[in-house]
């Protein structure tokens, strides 16, 4: 199926690096306390060759004001009140290490460029990015996929809120070093797209120098089909969603091509005029239109096609609504879905009469502030006109169900120009870097000690070093349970397992190793450490370890059951072991309890024999 439509897919992976400092300043990469707010408008500037980027132009037309939350862990570089520092050497070293793992050609000099971005995600109006390496490859399922580029760039701001005419961002994320890896458009199926992203993610995590968690890695997917267009899907955060995103984009483009064919057969036409139809809805019961400026555009021959489904739950009209929302409106109405929403059949007839529209025509309505409505409808006119030509190149946002929404036009080459505040860096001194063991190879080693699925989870964990350290002195299964299985179970219960650091797992494993707490007590010890992260060994042992109490208990138990032991001899062990474990289960390892109890029974029996 996908070969028949000429599917081509390229993946871009964006991965935050776990460095001490940001890329162009010495601020930490962790969130601090908010201390003030900065407000900005961003304006468009032409590139070095005098051209405007089309995506940036549309962002300007949206006329939004941006607010930025400034933290005690951010500085004037993030606020664009001070020039950037030299590039973070630690981040560049990691980028070169990854490039070597991907068999790429590393550039002799790394030059920083400015990439125009005025959607508010950067206070400067551009993102700093540097090309580090080109022309690599990876092998996935026996197939080689080319790696076109590897860039080192600064992470964007974190969006907190947005609404009509404004957006609020936090500066804490801005400037975190980010690796961007772009494959060639050589992927031919949705499943292979997911497998390639999975392999690249594994390679990045194998360095043990990348951040983990929600938002620290994102996949952008570039998709095209024969007679279609290249479309970039931004922000696919769930790996398991990639194949569905590709499938749904193929479906969208195929349906849009069918719409184009039908429109040509109908000799459809898009009017460029925007009509003020407020008078038609003066007495409307539609709360969205009542008392507002209402305007409309006329699409000749579009009836039934604006409401045509192009992705599950999304129609051509949804594409128009996305554009309206990007200009600060709530959406649009169109005649394929009317009467509805408080708009009556009589009002629809008046609207058609007012515009001279027949039943084969479609009308799109928008309401709100005059200027915003005009800009939104002008852009929808462009989009509707493109339906007669084909599929526009554009950037889209990935939705949670795998469908996509319009974001902006696809950026062009005009948005790139040199960064004059950061000097170029020679890469020669960074080339002698060791390559780490891949997670998949580590998992094969661990699979000799554990079931493979568990072995892979441990190999892919930041705590794999603890497994290496303790699995020679503590059962590998117990170590795996402490660092992975128990935390997973506690997380399902809603506990904040992120509060557990490497030192917490280490102390629990060390106490198990020394026999000061039982392996059964590991879960309770970790629960305790979640609530008491500063607790030390003594507190844990006093709460969950009972070796000294065990000696006293066994001594008293054997004395109280003296007659039973003398009568049944070694056969008395099983009932007495049950009594001992009822008291010490989860506090002392069962093997220790058994050993001490056996010795106490043997001692009593030997004393009787001696007598």
Overview of the structural elements:
This protein is of the alpha+beta class and 611 residues long. The protein has four domains: 8-260, no CATH class; 269-387, Gyrase A, domain 2 (2-Layer Sandwich); 439-544, no CATH class; 547-610. Helices cover 37% and strands 22% of the residues. The strands form five sheets. Strands 1, 4, 6, 7, 8, 11, 12, 13, 21, 22 and 23 form an eleven-stranded mixed sheet that branches. Strand 7 and strand 8 (143-154) form a beta hairpin. Helix 12 (502-513) packs antiparallel against helix 13 (522-531). The model has no long low-confidence stretch (mean pLDDT 91).
Low-confidence stretches are none
Report on the biggest sheet: 11 strands, mixed
Mean pLDDT: 91
What oligomeric assembly is this protein in?
single chain
Structural class: alpha+beta
Number of alpha- plus pi-helical segments: 18
Residues in helix, %: 25-40%
Distance between the termini: 90 Å
Q: What is the count of structural domains?
A: 4
User: How much beta, percentage-wise?
Assistant: 15-25%
Taking all Cα atoms into account, the compactness measure Rg is: 32 Å
* E-strand count: 24
The 3D shape can be described as elongated
């Amino acid at each position: 199926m996908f070969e028949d439509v000429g599917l081509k897919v390229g993946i871009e992976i964006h991965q935050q690096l776990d460095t001490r400092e940001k890329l162009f300043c010495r601020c930490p990469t962790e969130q601090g306390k908010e201390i003030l707010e900065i407000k900005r408008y961003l304006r468009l500037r032409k590139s070095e060759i005098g051209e405007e980027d089309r995506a940036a132009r549309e962002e300007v037309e949206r006329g939004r004001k941006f607010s930025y939350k400034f933290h005690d862990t951010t500085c004037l570089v993030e606020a664009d009140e001070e020039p950037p520092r030299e590039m973070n050497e630690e981040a560049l070293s990691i980028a070169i290490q990854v490039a070597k793992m991907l068999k790429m050609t590393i550039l002799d000099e790394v030059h920083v460029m400015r990439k125009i971005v005025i959607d508010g995600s950067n206070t400067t109006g551009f993102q700093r990015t540097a090309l580090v390496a080109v022309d690599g490859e990876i092998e996935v399922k026996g197939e080689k996929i080319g790696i076109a580029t590897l860039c080192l760039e600064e992470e964007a701001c974190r969006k907190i809120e947005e609404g009509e005419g404004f957006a609020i961002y936090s500066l804490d994320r801005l400037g975190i070093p980010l690796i961007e890896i772009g494959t060639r458009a050589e992927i031919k199926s949705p499943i292979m797209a997911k497998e390639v992203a999975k392999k690249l993610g594994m390679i990045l995590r194998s360095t043990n120098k990348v951040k983990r968690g929600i938002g620290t890695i994102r996949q952008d997917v570039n998709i095209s089909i024969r007679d279609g267009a290249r479309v970039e899907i931004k922000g696919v955060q769930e790996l398991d969603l990639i194949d569905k995103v590709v499938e749904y984009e193929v479906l969208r483009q195929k349906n849009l091509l069918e719409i184009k064919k039908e429109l040509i057969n109908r000799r459809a036409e898009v009017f460029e005029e925007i009509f003020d139809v407020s008078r038609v809805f003066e007495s409307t019961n539609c709360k969205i239109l009542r008392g507002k400026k209402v305007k409309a555009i006329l699409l000749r021959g579009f009836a039934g096609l604006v409401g045509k489904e192009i992705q599950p739950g999304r129609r051509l009209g949804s594409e128009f609504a996305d554009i309206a929302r990007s200009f600060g409106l709530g959406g649009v109405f169109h005649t394929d879905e009317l009467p509805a929403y408080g708009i009556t059949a009589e009002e629809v007839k008046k609207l058609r009469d007012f515009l001279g529209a027949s039943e084969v025509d479609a009308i799109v309505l928008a309401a709100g502030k005059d200027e915003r409505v005009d800009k939104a409808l002008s852009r929808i006119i462009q989009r509707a006109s493109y339906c007669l030509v084909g599929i526009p190149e554009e950037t889209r946002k990935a939705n949670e169900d795998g469908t996509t929404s319009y974001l902006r036009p696809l950026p062009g080459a005009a948005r790139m120009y040199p960064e004059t505040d950061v000097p170029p860096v020679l890469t020669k001194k960074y080339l002698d870097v060791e390559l780490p063991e891949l997670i998949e190879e580590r998992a094969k080693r661990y699979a000799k000690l554990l079931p493979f699925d568990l072995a892979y989870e441990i190999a892919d964990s930041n705590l794999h070093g603890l497994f290496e350290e303790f699995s020679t002195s503590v059962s590998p299964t117990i170590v795996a349970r402490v660092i992975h299985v128990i935390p997973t179970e506690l997380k399902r219960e809603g506990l904040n397992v992120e509060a557990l650091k490497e030192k917490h797992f280490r102390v629990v494993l060390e106490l198990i190793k020394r026999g000061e707490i039982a392996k059964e007590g590991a879960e309770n010890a970790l629960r305790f450490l979640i609530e008491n992260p500063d607790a030390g060994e003594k507190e844990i042992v006093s709460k969950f370890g009972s070796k000294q109490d065990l000696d006293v208990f066994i001594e008293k138990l054997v004395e109280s059951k003296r007659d039973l032991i003398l009568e049944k001899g070694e056969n008395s062990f099983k009932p007495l072991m049950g009594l001992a474990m009822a008291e010490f289960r989860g506090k002392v390892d069962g093997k220790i309890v058994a050993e001490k109890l056996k010795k106490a029974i043997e001692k009593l029996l030997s004393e009787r024999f001696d007598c």
